[in-house]
Amino acid sequence: MDASWYVLLAILLGFAIGAASVHLLGLAAQRGRQVMAIASEPIPDGITAMVHVLESAGVVLDGSNQVIVASPGAHALDLVEGRTLRAHEMADAVRRVWSTGAAEVLDMTHRRGRLGGGHDVQLRVRVAPLGNRFMLVLATDRTEELRLAGVRRDFVANISHELKTPIGALQVLAEAIEAGAEEPERVRSFAQRMQVEADRLGRMTKELIDLSRIQADDPLDHAERFPIAQVVDVAVDRNRVLADAKRIRIMPRVLEEADVLGSEELVTMAVQNLISNAVQYSPEATHVGVGVRVVDDVVEVAITDKGVGIPADEQERVFERFYRIDPARSRVTGGTGLGLSIVKHVAASHGGEVSLWSRPGQGSTFTLRLPAAAAPAHKETP
Ligand code: ADP
């Protein structure tokens, strides 16, 4: 072979090596682009929008457990910190689901909020794979639901206890009457006590019916317009006999006239309960004030007494059903422990509230606040 053949062969070889290198480089670049695409896989269409419209708080994590989407609810519940899940229990569940592939549901207590140490909320958490690259965590706040279930359980337990007491007393008294039939004096005394217990049962039944009616019915659905001064007049009047028996003066003072929208009967019942408590928990020959004023379109009815007062740590609880500070004393006054919870429900169902200021030994002021009805639109006279 002469030299020119060697030159040609070398050129061809060089060309082939060059072409192969270019091809290999091209392949490498293409593979690199694919790897990049996997590493920065965009969040599939619609997931962010879906997480944001869910009722539960939602978080989506990628394969390295980094948060890539978190709904406003998830931030509000403090579920994420930067790009990680704050709760260890939740992060552990995510790890388990990655390895088993099976969705999990767990109930957990989570500390929400950082100011003042935060507070605990009860969460139901669902963790499920979203395709094979993402993980979805949904959390529902069940704190209120669980609290209400507890209130309902307590209510049933309380009501059976509260009803059993007077019914038991009636049974014992009836037996005593039977046994002492020959002694008219004793029979009379037992009969009087039966009357007291029967009254208590009657009052409790009525108040329970009132309470369930207020809770079942929205008074604003068929609201009537009525003057608050009329409510105060009737409520004061209904307490007159009770107050006279203790030589207590009830002093109404209506500074401004205003109308309220809702049920006149229910608002009267609420004011009447507050006045009757003021009278019952006050010593003889004192005063009970009933003041009415209007502040920023809100009607305020304040009932003030110079009675026994309520210790600070009981002030929230007195509005609970059947809660009584001194059950023995309450039995004497015939209290059922339902009066203030009726007031609270009447206030809430009228878009208002009831608040309490009290100091033991000094007295109490209960203030019922209700939205004032707007002035009626009056027709132009031609
Ligand atoms: P009750 O039928 O026992 O009066 P309420 O629900 O009306 O039930 O009141 C709950 C408890 O709150 C009462 O048992 C009493 O201990 C306390 N309380 C209510 N009003 C007053 C008041 N004006 N002064 C002092 N204690 C009060």
UniProtKB/TrEMBL annotation:
Reactions listed under catalytic activity: ATP + protein L-histidine = ADP + protein N-phospho-L-histidine
PROSITE patterns, sorted: HIS_KIN
Keyword Transmembrane: yes
Ranges of residues in domain Histidine kinase: 158-374
SUPFAM superfamilies recorded: ATPase domain of HSP90 chaperone/DNA topoisomerase II/histidine kinase, Homodimeric domain of signal transducing histidine kinase
GO MF term (any one): calcium ion binding
Localization (cell): Cell membrane
Top EC group: transferase
Pfam entry (one): HisKA
Domain of life assignment: Bacteria
InterPro entries according to UniProt: BphY/WalK/GraS-like, HATPase_C_sf, HATPase_dom, His_kinase_dom, HisK_dim/P_dom, HisK_dim/P_sf, Sig_transdc_His_kin-like_C
Cofactor(s), names only, from the UniProt record: a divalent metal cation
Keywords tagged on the record: Kinase, Membrane, Phosphoprotein, Transferase, Transmembrane, Transmembrane helix, Two-component regulatory system
GO BP annotations, alphabetical order: cellular response to phosphate starvation
First-listed, main subcellular location of the protein, grouped into a coarse class: membrane
One GO cellular component term: plasma membrane
CDD domains in the cross-refs: HATPase (cd00075), HisKA (cd00082)
Transmembrane segments: 6-28
EC id: 2.7.13.3
Keyword Phosphoprotein among record annotations: yes
Full protein name: Sensor-like histidine kinase SenX3
Organism annotation: Agrococcus baldri
